[in-house]
Amino acid sequence: MTAADTAREAPARPAGYGLVRRGRASFLVHRRSAAVTAVLAAALAAAVVAALSLGETATAPAEVVKVLLGRPSPDELVVGTLRLPRVVVGLLVGAALGVAGGLIQTVARNPLASPEIIGVTHGAAAVTVGAMTFGLTSYALLPYLSVAGGVLAAALIYVFAWRRGIHAARFVLIGLGFSVALRSVTQLFMTKGDFLAAQQAQVWMTGSLNGRGWEQAAPLGWVLLAVLPAVLWCSRAQREVALDDDTATALGVRLGRARLGLTATGVVLASVATGAAGPVDFVALLSPQIARRLTRTARIPLLATALLGALTVTLGDLLARRLFAPVELPVGVLTAAIGAPYLIWLIARSRTGGGA
Fold first, then answer.
1. Tell me, what's the pLDDT at 308?
2. Using CA atoms in the order 89, 90, 95, 96, what is the torsion angle rounded to 10 degrees?
3. Which of 140, 229, 243, 271 could form a disulfide with 247 if both were Cys (CB 3.0 to 4.6 A apart)?
4. Whole-angstrom distance, CA of residue 235 vs CA of residue 261
5. pLDDT digits (tens, 9 = 90+) for 170-195
6. What is the reported pTM?
């Protein structure tokens, strides 16, 4: 058989994809997505080193790398004990919010459908602030209470939005209504509880990594590890959700089950991230759409979205600490300052007929 015959018999690869072989196994890789993911990973590593280096006292990047690699360093206390837990929480929160936003936007088929817009984050916040205001729990249990609040809010939204299926526009509008109502409930809790606890809850509501340590990172990490198999399943289920109802029915795809699975996974991720750091707004809204535009893929790339979310929170927290030092801003203030103009642009573009 000639080389020309072999080329004719080989299956054609989609444009933009490359074939990677590992032993007997082979798989297709989207070249642009792989390049974007590599660049985001490198940028995230640089941001982590910068966040660990800069503070009231500067630390040389070489010493930061030594601490991260477990080598002896005179700056181990500052980097490993004081700064590293906060950075780890920021990484996990950003990645969780990014993936949560990507999954919910995939189900709703709407770039405006993120956890903070449709009320999931506010459901988590209402339960968490209620517990904080009335002194019902410790900070270590807040991520678990947030999951309960987020799941409850999402279940109510899903029930009210269901009319022989989930329509994207109805899903978002009902979520917006629940978001306003749950925000009012949160404010009610803050006015009726203990004054000092209410002040702490007010700071938490802005979305802050200040004072976050391993007691927040540990439960957040365990929950995300438990959800990881579901996220891997979601990366494949995105293909099914992209189908319209008629096509899915003709192919025998259980579209309702796939949508429910993606929504539930996104709700858990957003809720546990909210419990760890408070409502860090607009990360879940921005990350999926920016990642999709960078990779130019038909579906939201979850790995690139997770890296972009982690990068956004890490850089946002670094800027919040250093822009007005010694005054420290909550990271949620920085992400809101960036995300609000983007949301306005997205709405304006949709109204003028631009693609989202």
1. 92
2. 60
3. 243
4. 11
5. 777 888 888 888 888 888 887 776 67
6. 0.83
